[in-house]
Amino acid sequence: MSSSDSPLSFLLDAPKVSALTTDIDGTLCRIVDRPEKAKVPDRARRTLESLSHELAMVACITGRPALTARKMVGAGNVIYFGTHGLELLSPGHDAPRMMLEGEEAERARNFIAKHDNPLWVAAKIRIEDKGPIQALHWRGAGERTENFVREIADQAEVAGLDTHWGRKVMELRPPDMDGKAGAVSELITNGKIENIVFAGDDQTDLDAVRRLQGLKEDGEIKNLFIVAVASDEGPPELIEVADLVVAGSEEWIDMIEDLAALAG
Fold first, then answer.
1. What DSSP string runs through 57-125?
2. Which of 55, 95, 171, 257 has the fewest CB atoms within 10 Å distance of its CB?
3. Contact 87, 96 (CB under 8 A)
């Protein structure tokens, strides 16, 4: 059954063709200085697991590696689309399906190996190895460090890499990568999804939202509901296009808990 008390309840009107998709960092948990210390609340795990048995699909689409995301969230029946769409980890599988292999998959890692030096450490730049994507974090450092990262980005672009900017992070990506936009397209097409809720907080999530809006305009999905988690560091465009803006990850988890209660 469904109820107008929840703006997400339309998913329960046709659960076999409905999907709930969510980012992790900044959406299911707070952003922290060290990404490895981020923690998804246990109530989020329970809620996503419960909804995964009610809806056609529950998916976490994240910039983290897919295996890391599954360990972090802990819900076993959920799809994890990791490293911004490069790794697809389905329920019941021990390893993700890689969407990119060969030389292009190693280009960013090779750039880091060639250019990393003690000056990066002195500037408080922290490198996160995401396989085909390499992330440079500087949360807690100052403006001079960000300017230094921009110089590194210029070098990376000359080397043929794409750069993508998030919340105190710059990612080095393989060229022409479709990111979270490609991930949502893959999930909707293969899952034959007609109704979808998407929640996020960052620029990469805005990319996915724009793709979803295009799919709706083309008639490939019927109903779309966008939830933006407010952040001073997030893109204002995401807030502008959202159907609903929540103050933080706890409020988003409250919403999906309410949906799970209705489904039960």
1. EEEEE-SS-HHHHHHHH--TTSEEEEGGGTEEE-TT-SSPEES--SHHHHHHHHHHHHH--HHHHHTT-
2. 95
3. yes
Distance CA 199, CA 258 (A): 15
pTM of the complete model: 0.81
Residue 3 located in a structural domain: no
Token pair for 90? 């389905």
Q: What one-letter code names the amino acid at 221?
A: I
Question: pLDDT tens digits, residue range 119-162?
Answer: 999 999 999 988 888 999 999 888 999 999 999 999 999 999 99
**pLDDT tens by residue, 210-248:** 999 999 999 999 999 999 999 888 899 999 999 999 999
Cβ atoms of 85 and 61 within 8 Å: the answer is yes
Residue 198 lies in a domain: yes
CA pair distance 173, 133, nearest whole angstrom: 5
For 66, residues 6+ apart whose C-beta sits below 8 A from its C-beta are 80, 81, 82, 83, 87, 88, 89, 96
- The CATH number for 241's domain is 3.40.50.1000
Residue numbers of the domain that contains 250: 9-99+178-263
Is 186 in the same domain as 214?
yes
Q: Which position has the token pair 């469904």?
A: 2
What DSSP line would sit under 160-216, residue for residue? T-EEEE-SSEEEEE-TT--HHHHHHHHHHHHHT--EEEEEE-SHHHHHHHHHHHHHH
User: Could you tell me which of 236, 210, 185 has the C-alpha nearest to residue 61?
Assistant: 185
Q: 84 and 182, same structural domain? A: yes
- Domains: count for the chain: 2
